[in-house]
């Protein structure tokens, strides 16, 4: 594994090709934030609301499905537009992959990616231990607690909601929680929040089980075992089978629901092992893998 993952790809493929998905993700994330901020700052209401519930062009409703489920659990029946908004969001993430929210939209990803980058540059090795399944237990709690107390308790501390409210209305004490997440990922556990604990990511991972777009290690015979893809992947274990499991009969498709479709494995691979697979190609690879 190189000291700086992607260096070989930069030399061999050029700067743009070794950073394109990273740059496109940042452009998307800042564009989403910018569209929300245009209203309060300039009176141009393209997106009104926040990532929990919003209106596109003051017409199309967009609702976070997890927020809607919490509302139901708390005993509050959502109005029709919220149901429609949740259906639109679910359909969108079905097309592009549920955890695309985590890597292409979520503002907290900017913080955790910064922590991961700095951790790598400083060579820090934290010793925190949390199972990657912990997030699914926390997701269950997010839905059970409202059913018990009648309040959407998670939304009071949800870092995504706090970040959005902070940008729109002033951060206040929310800065402390976001700073704590940064320090946790930096010093305690690599990718600790997004990769092990975040219940929002767990929810979108479940949505991702039927994603239309996946990444495939289709050129894995060219793999040089540089391990750069492992170094940058926020869900490192999902690469083992697709990249190195050919002899065990594992197909090249990264079918794991935890994949965020961030594209960094494509960026940093000098041997061009990875590619995006769409639609019928996904079904074909899954069929071959299950034989």
From TrEMBL:
One Pfam family it belongs to: Fer4_7
According to the UniProt entry, its GO molecular function terms are: 4 iron, 4 sulfur cluster binding; metal ion binding
PROSITE patterns, per this entry?
4FE4S_FER_1 (PS00198), 4FE4S_FER_2 (PS51379)
Q: Which residues form the signal peptide?
A: none
Q: Which SUPFAM superfamilies match?
A: 4Fe-4S ferredoxins (SSF54862)
Question: Key word Metal-binding present in the record?
Answer: yes
Instruction: Extract one GO cellular component term from the record.
Output: plasma membrane
* Name of the protein this chain belongs to: Quinol dehydrogenase
* Name of the coding gene: napH
């Amino acid at each position: 594994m190189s000291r700086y993952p992607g260096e070989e790809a930069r030399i061999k493929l050029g700067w743009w090709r070794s950073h394109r998905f990273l740059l496109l993700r940042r452009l998307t994330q800042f564009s989403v934030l910018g569209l929300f901020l245009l209203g309060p700052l300039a009176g141009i209401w393209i997106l009104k609301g926040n990532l929990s519930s919003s209106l596109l062009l003051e017409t199309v409703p967009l609702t976070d499905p997890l927020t809607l489920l919490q509302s139901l659990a708390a005993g509050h029946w959502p109005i029709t537009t919220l149901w429609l908004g949740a259906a639109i969001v679910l359909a969108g993430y079905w097309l592009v992959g549920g955890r695309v929210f985590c890597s292409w939209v979520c503002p907290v990803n900017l913080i955790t990616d910064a922590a991961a980058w700095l951790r790598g540059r400083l060579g820090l090795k934290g010793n925190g231990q949390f199972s990657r399944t912990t997030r699914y237990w926390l997701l269950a709690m997010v839905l059970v607690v409202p059913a018990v107390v009648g309040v959407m308790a998670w939304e009071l501390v949800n870092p995504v909601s706090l970040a959005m409210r902070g940008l729109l209305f002033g951060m206040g004490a929310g800065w402390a929680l976001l700073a704590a997440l940064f320090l946790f990922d930096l010093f305690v556990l690599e990718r600790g929040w997004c990769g092990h604990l975040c219940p929002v990511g767990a929810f979108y991972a479940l949505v991702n089980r039927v994603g239309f777009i996946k990444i495939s290690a289709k050129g894995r015979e060219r793999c040089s075992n540089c391990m750069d893809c492992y170094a940058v992947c926020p869900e490192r274990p999902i690469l083992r089978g697709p990249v190195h499991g050919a002899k065990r009969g594992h197909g090249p498709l990264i079918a794991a629901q935890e994949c965020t479709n961030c594209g960094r494995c494509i960026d940093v691979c000098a041997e061009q092992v990875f590619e995006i697979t769409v639609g019928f190609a996904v079904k074909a690879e899954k069929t071959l893998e299950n034989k």
